[in-house]
Amino acid sequence: MPTIADVAASAGVGLGTVSRVLNGSPKVRAETRARVLDAIDTLGYRPNPLARGLSLGRCQTVGVVVPFFTHASAVERLRGVVAALDQSRYDLVLFNVESPVHREEHLGSLTRRDRADGLLIMSLPTPAEELERLAVSGVPIVLVDAEGVGVTAVVTDDVAGGRMATQHLVDLGHHAIAFLGDDPANSFGFTSSTQRELGYRAVLAEAGEEVRRDLVRHGPHEREVGAQVGAELFALDDPPTAVFASSDVQATGIIAAAAHAGLRVPEDISVIGFDDVEISGYIGLTTVRQPLFDSGFLGGQLLLDALAAPAPGRGDHPQVHPLELELVIRTTTAPPTSGRGSTRG
Amino acid sequence: MPTIADVAASAGVGLGTVSRVLNGSPKVRAETRARVLDAIDTLGYRPNPLARGLSLGRCQTVGVVVPFFTHASAVERLRGVVAALDQSRYDLVLFNVESPVHREEHLGSLTRRDRADGLLIMSLPTPAEELERLAVSGVPIVLVDAEGVGVTAVVTDDVAGGRMATQHLVDLGHHAIAFLGDDPANSFGFTSSTQRELGYRAVLAEAGEEVRRDLVRHGPHEREVGAQVGAELFALDDPPTAVFASSDVQATGIIAAAAHAGLRVPEDISVIGFDDVEISGYIGLTTVRQPLFDSGFLGGQLLLDALAAPAPGRGDHPQVHPLELELVIRTTTAPPTSGRGSTRG
DNA sequence: TTGAAAGCGTTACCAC
DNA sequence: GTGGTAACGCTTTCAA
Known about the structure:
Two copies of one chain form a homodimer. Chain A has helices spanning 4-11, 15-22, 30-43, 49-56, 72-86, 100-110, 128-137, 158-171, 192-206, 223-234, 248-260, 278-283, 292-308, and strands at residues 61-66, 91-96, 118-122, 141-144, 152-156, 177-181, 216-218, 242-245, 270-275, 286-289, 320-323, 326-328. The first copy, chain A, is α/β, with parallel strands linked by helices. The first copy, chain A, has a six-stranded parallel beta sheet with strand order 2-1-3-4-5-11, sandwiched between helices. The first copy, chain A, starts with a helix and ends in a 17-residue tail after the last strand.
């Protein structure tokens, strides 16, 4: 495995000259450069990124901290990040987070420029103190689907999204509208779902509807949870005529439960989700579309920008980039049928 | 940012001793160790992986080369890898491959121990010559969903899978069975689909059925492709009564086309897919299940094993680990209805 | 058991 | 322009 020294020897020049050629320094005579390039070629030399990193104090690596298993939508976001980084010279190191402990571990070890030059944190509410530590360490950081004081972030207005979904159901004439989302006290501290619930409650209040406690349910973003909650909901004396699930994955569970209970969607029960993941199109789920891929892509770009900026300017201008939400009406929502539905006043 | 020297100074010991403590060498007096550990703690010292890697000649990193965007199934496999690596001390670097050029690039630069200590290549048929280069470079390598001479691999018997699917349709009484899969001349050189097609042809031959050229179609693993091909198939004078799509994603397209053509599944047309990705369960698709997650997990473990093995033994015993396929019968296949179907003898 | 010193492959600073 | 040389932070060998 040839080193820079071998190249230098072979080309009959000094170490420094090879390095200069490598890094495109203009202070090299054309003829010398050619000779060095030639030697590099014949020797099949390739710079050692580790050594380069050690010397430079950076490692050409971007760390992505992502709750990979927890959200189906994370994958789509990750795709965006990958696409954004693809043209850059940065490698992408994946840090999966399955538990809060996990997060602490990773964030702790990543507060160092030597594991990753920049950090992309997805969907994980990061304690202000952690953020502070990261900021101090000088590692540029971008949050995607999360917010933090003084940190550049790509966000979605989940309250607005929750409003959109609920308003759609209200507009269709529904009264007994159930909500299913993450537990506000979930161990990760995910807040998106809670925000959506806020939107739900706000719209209901505006419509003069009472928020029935038996219609508000919580659980992780899993299909099984949706199926379970759906079954409970449909077994109620006064069942809902519509369900707003704060994720498409949960929504599919609700739909499965409806089928199981012999209910037709949307005739007997309307279902709306959130995210617009790939499967939603397949099954015709009405939902609130989040630009998942774009969020990752934009996050990646922002991080690359921060990395490209001269160190002193870094982090001085944190920006929050809101992404547009869009109501996608497909075939799982419709006006309530008179035969069924709430009899509440 | 404290270095090992700071720790040494603070603990009043030499550099080497700190290093020994760090690496769990037994040749350190308990009292000394305690003092060092103490210093490490108060200083908040953390070893620099880059420096460590440079010195050691490795970087505690596993490279995963994966056609991320090309196959939905790749994500599931990736999940498995992440899970396998999670407990190890290796970081996972993701190399996306969107085009053959991409592949060359990555593989070229990864033939070096300094970017990744080990390599996991997914679903990408790697030219024997590349494999040779990698083998020579001493980087342990594991193939998942691909095969190569002399390389440890996790594989599925796609011919057998193709047989399973086709036999299921034949057993149901179908005669005009269409096939949709990757173009055998696809630019990546993916072969799984072609293997499945082999199984399809074999079963048809055994059943005494002619393989109708108009019923064998090719295209990328995209839903749109399935929809397009489905439309063409259903417009035939003598349309098929069943379709075997070599991926679930294509199968969903076929189903969409059926709905569009006013055909009921499975009454008018049976559809079987391949993979059993998450959505397949949701939509009740009959399919051949591949243990995607497991394949990634096993691949990760095998790579970790290889990495743990003493260098000389590496690669001496490449093994091929076949994974079990399973026919999952759900609701998209049924016997052909008499009213429709082929009239061929 | 411990300390000192020699690398690992680069980059960057300093003379020439 | 170009060639030495000192870092970068760690592991490891060699003495002591």
